[in-house]
Amino acid sequence: MTTAATIDRKTFMPFQDMGLEADDVVSLPLDDLALRVLKSARAAGERNWQNWLLGARNRGYPTRPDAAQALSEAWAWLQNRGLIAWDVEQSSTPGMFVISRQGEAALDRGLPWIRAVERLNVQMVAELEAKARPQFLRGDFEAAALLAMKEVEVAVRTAAGLENSLVGTALMQRAFRPPKSPTDTGGPLSDPAADGGEAVALMELYKGAIGLFKNPASHRRVDFTDPTEAAEVVLLADLLLRLLAKAAPPASRS
Q: pTM of the prediction?
């Protein structure tokens, strides 16, 4: 078993595998540094983060306590994000860890995926929490984006009380249509007291979002290779659902 007492008797190379000078360690964004640390530890077969950190401090950056501190912060970041977990089989030995399932996914998918997951680390409406977030965390970005926008479409139809055959941009047009005259109340989700330009902008916002991000994915395969883009689509759907809660008639909010 590797312990802090035996660290000097083994070859310790992880920090060299990272290929980082002390100034690089200190200047890198914390998430980038943390992923490099995790890759290094996995490549070296290291199972004790304290040993890893002691070796990096004593052999890698002995004259740079600021670099050692940055590496310590990287390990804390990994723990706080659930990318490592304490090894229950070695619970009596301080510092023993395993790479979690989320950590393995992070190593496989890279820094853009980690940052996209962080982007979604907010409280979303219940429908997206239950459906879109799990798909996104599994790496199915297309399904997450499509499900999110489908929830917008369904919620708009329900709030407006419109028929199921009405879909896509036509549904948004009918639901949010501004009044055409002083005697016209407009669509069921239109606010007659709203400024005319704002009412049109709200309708166009929903039409554009559904037309761009929901309709194409309903008819053909849309590859979301950029997890950040997919995360932004989910967050846009969250905003649209929140705006809808304000726009919906009182009878449809209960």
A: 0.77
